[in-house]
Amino acid sequence: MKPAPFEYFVPEAADEALALMAEHGLEARPLAGGQSLVPLINMRMAQPGVLIDLNRCAEFAYLREDGDALVSGPMTRQRELELSPIVRRHCPLIAKAMPHMGHATIRNRGTAGGSLSHADPSAELPGVAVAMDAELIAGGPNGRRAIPATEFYLAELTTALEPEEMLCEIRFPKATENSRASFAEVGSHFGGLAIVGVAGQVEISASGHCNKVALAATGAGERPMRLTSAEALLTGQVLDERIIPDAAEAAAADVEPLEDLHASAHWRRRAVVAMTAQALREIASQGVG
Ligand SMILES: Cc1cc2nc3c(=O)[nH]c(=O)nc-3n(C[C@H](O)[C@H](O)[C@H](O)COP(=O)(O)OP(=O)(O)OC[C@H]3O[C@@H](n4cnc5c(N)ncnc54)[C@H](O)[C@@H]3O)c2cc1C
């Protein structure tokens, strides 16, 4: 199929892109890496009247440290997040999750902002952002506002962005030196979207106790979900086989999986338990302090 007709703009500055969004509002969609939007348009599952191509907005593509945060522009390519030494050092959970996202060719083109804004409940990066308590900075006619990742996802493919707003920056809190991270997922084939995934980051003290636990599941509800019962059970405990099975079971109560053609709700819930256990075991294997 061919896309329905649309107007096409290629702004070269962030202000220009934001002005176009303000002018065209509901009609407009930003085009980032196009890895999700272009197929949707070609299949006419999305029919935006206006496409605002962000690929020439160089000021939207950056990755830098800013105090206790690692800050990414929306047009930073997923491959850069995967390979960047500052990501590995300060946000190991991102580095662990990125190789699971499609193929390297997809990540060469796909962007941080595109994946986060697309809001596919099975996508890895939204789950990571929710686990890390990232802040998503929206820009619009009334300036910029920060939206906690935990409030950004409303439902499948639906975010808290207003029609005239764009995602302009992502702020990931840096992990402490003694944080350990893992991303575990199960899918039907290599390079495809996972069915269920679990992102985990645990700060472990020199004595082996979990100071701070952050866990989030993907593919287990309409949006990425924090596994708060499992987090509460683990906090203050030693991360070992005496607690991991119970924490993984607790995670089952934190999700609201739906049935679709890939898996039943029951299967997804059990997959959350299995992936939580797998992520926690990998974290435990990384040592303490
Ligand atoms: C074969 C294949 C396998 C894949 N496997 C995976 C996988 O395993 N895991 C995974 O997570 N993804 C997967 N993807 C999707 C891929 O990661 C996409 O790159 C990502 O979902 C969208 O990023 P993008 O930059 O391509 O955005 P686009 O496709 O350009 O845009 C996606 C959506 O986000 C909106 N958008 C883009 N930028 C902004 C912004 N700054 N502000 C507001 N809205 C914005 C667009 O309007 C559109 O609605 C796969 C894709 C393919 C083709």
Write a short abstract of this structure:
The protein has 12 helices and 14 strands.
What does this protein structure show overall?
This protein has 289 residues and is an alpha+beta fold. The protein folds into 3 domains: 47 residues, 2-Layer Sandwich (Uridine Diphospho-n-acetylenolpyruvylglucosamine Reductase, domain 2), CATH 3.30.43.10; 116 residues, Uridine Diphospho-n-acetylenolpyruvylglucosamine Reductase, domain 3 (2-Layer Sandwich), CATH 3.30.465.10; 107 residues, Enolase-like, domain 1 (2-Layer Sandwich). Helix content is 34%, strand content 26%. The chain has 12 helices and 14 strands. It has a 5-stranded antiparallel sheet. Strands 11-12-13-14 form a 4-stranded antiparallel sheet, with helices on both faces. A 3-stranded parallel sheet has the order 1-3-2, with helices on one face. It is globular and about 60 Å long.
So how many helices?
12
Number of domains: 3
Overall spatial form: globular
- The proportion of strand residues reads 25-35%
> Would you tell me which CATH topology of the largest domain applies?
Uridine Diphospho-n-acetylenolpyruvylglucosamine Reductase, domain 3
Task: Write down how many β-strands occur, each being a DSSP E stretch of 2 or more residues.
Answer: 14
Query: What is the averaged pLDDT score?
Result: 96
N-to-C span: 55 Å
| SSE ordering | EHEHEEEHHHHHHEEHEEEEEEEHHH
Biggest sheet statistics? 5 strands, antiparallel
Structural class estimated from helices and strands: alpha+beta
Percent in helix: 25-40%
**Which architecture of the largest domain does the CATH hierarchy give at level 2?**
2-Layer Sandwich
